[in-house]
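Task: encode each sequence below as structure tokens.

Item 1
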Amino acid sequence: MVVILLGPPGVGKGTQAVRLADSVGWEHVSTGDLLRAARRAGTELGRKAQAFMDAGELVPDSLILDLVRDHLKGIPPEAGILLDGFPRTTAQAEGLDGVLEAVGRRVDQVVVFEAPDEELIRRLSGRRSCPECGAVFNVHFTPPKQEGICDRCGAALVHRADDKAETVENRLKVYAAQTEPLIEWYGRSEAAVVAVSAEAPVDDVQREFRKAVGH
């Protein structure tokens, strides 16, 4: 089963995906994590991605799709997959369909996490991220055990520039313009599209998420 997670920045997709994947043995596929891993390992794709990032450019869709394709090849066919952070546009979704078809899979379900903008702004301004392993914490809701330190790998957490309040509103506008059309796009596909409210406490959202995907 392949499930795509959609929702605006700060809605908690990554947190919910990690909890579900760890619990039921599914594979959580985050394109951000794939990029970081490829760069650390110094793979050919990682070096290509680094060149774009060093130049201040976005990593092209074709390169992201290559990273996803390589990763999916190593996942057992019986394992469920949660795709988090990709696709972001209909063009990426079309490319992803081809990648999945090549490994004998398809998008089975799309889960859309929803929350009001004002709640998302509050969440994002409190978010702290690990630059090494990609773990995400929140000073308001899910703080690390030791302030400023990642629970997973012990690296120093950072307050990313795009998580600061002055940039959040623009990120939400970009999501509305580029990613929200995916909901309509997948609504015309064979995939089941389900909305989950992300306003409730983390455990309650997880329960609704599990219900949506049959776990």
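Item 2
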Amino acid sequence: MLSLVDHPYQSVCFELLADAEPGLLPRLLVPFARRDLLPDQMRTRRHGDTVEASLEMAAMPAEMVHLVEGNLRQIVGVRRVSVIMRACVRAAA
């Protein structure tokens, strides 16, 4: 049986807390775009001077998870990043 680490694809949700600033949302997408990835779902909610954001991918290449996480942590104004991973079975066409 494959562990989460051994699986080539991951179902991933990046949950963030950041300062509410103009330009924040496009900056959150840059780490994905650099790697030709497009999140399946992005949800945001503003709470006063902070924003809660959730970016989800159903099948993300496992080797890219830590790279995207690191880039998200480097964005100015991001206070916290949490990563939730599950194994993903990708159907062959």
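Check on item 2: The two ends are 23 Å apart (CA to CA). The mean pLDDT is 89.
End of task.
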